[in-house]
Amino acid sequence: MLQGIDRRENDFTNDVKDMPYEEFPEWCKLQYEYANGRLLPAGYVPQSIYWLYIDGEPVGVGKIRWKLTETSREAGGNIGYAISRQYRGHGYGTILLKSLIDIAKSGNCPELLATVKKYNYASKRVMEKCSGELVRETDERWYYRLG
């Protein structure tokens, strides 16, 4: 599923694109450490990764950064998702984002901000379906407050 998402697609970073299968378990362990605030690179905040499965198939991945930084306020926000190409257009982005919002709210995430590149009208619609409030825009991005 992650191979169906480009390395840097619509502001979503997919670190495992083209990663050898043998390296994936170690990457998962590192993500667990990051989620718990350990081994974070300088300037990073705790981040959790979630997977959306439909009928036993992985179709999407989402991330929650548990704090907003000045950098993430400008590019990326602190909540994001990606759906594998072959599953797009079926409402899975909306399902995943609504789930991420619920998880973030239950985890006491103080603020949720998502950014959408201005050419990505599908994600713009997902933000609107998830009651996203457009709070700002630049030449490149729309900024949505969620939750």
CATH architecture verdict: 3-Layer(aba) Sandwich
CATH topology: Aminopeptidase
Average of the residue pLDDT scores: 89
Which strand-content bin applies to the residues? 25-35%
Q: H/E element string?
A: EEHEEHEHEHEE
Query: How many domains, as an integer?
Result: 1
Bin the helical content.
25-40%
The CATH class, by name, is Alpha Beta
pLDDT < 50 runs, ≥5 residues: none
Distance between the termini: 27 Å
Q: Strands of the biggest beta sheet: in what spatial order?
A: 3-4-5
Output the CATH homologous superfamily. Gcn5-related N-acetyltransferase (GNAT)
Tally of helical runs: 4
Shape descriptor = globular
Give a short account of the largest sheet.
Answer: 3 strands, antiparallel
- Whole-number radius of gyration? 15 Å
Protein name: GNAT family N-acetyltransferase
Organism: Blautia obeum
Pfam families: Acetyltransf_1 (PF00583)
Keywords: Transferase
Keywords:
acyltransferase activity, transferring groups other than amino-acyl groups, Aminopeptidase, 3-stranded antiparallel beta sheet, alpha+beta, transferase, GNAT family N-acetyltransferase, GNAT_dom, 28% helix, 147 residues
Question: In summary, what is this structure?
Answer:
Residues 14-147 form the N-acetyltransferase domain. With 147 residues, this protein is an alpha+beta fold.
Question: How would you characterize this protein structure?
Answer:
- The protein is α+β, with helices and mostly antiparallel strands.
- It has one domain (2-146): Aminopeptidase (3-Layer(aba) Sandwich), CATH 3.40.630.30.
- It is built from 4 helices and 8 strands.
- It has helices at 24-35, 70-74, 92-106, 121-129; strands at 8-9, 12-13, 47-54, 57-65, 79-83, 112-117, 133-137, 141-146.
- It has a 3-stranded antiparallel beta sheet, sandwiched between helices. Strands 6-8-7 form a 3-stranded antiparallel beta sheet, with helices on one face. Strands 1-2 form a two-stranded antiparallel sheet.
- The longest helix is centred in the last third of the chain and has 15 residues, at 92-106.
- The protein is globular.
- 24% of the residues are buried.
- The mean pLDDT is 89.
- GO terms for molecular function: acyltransferase activity, transferring groups other than amino-acyl groups.
- Pfam families: Acetyltransf_1.
- InterPro entries: Acyl_CoA_acyltransferase (IPR016181), GNAT_dom (IPR000182).
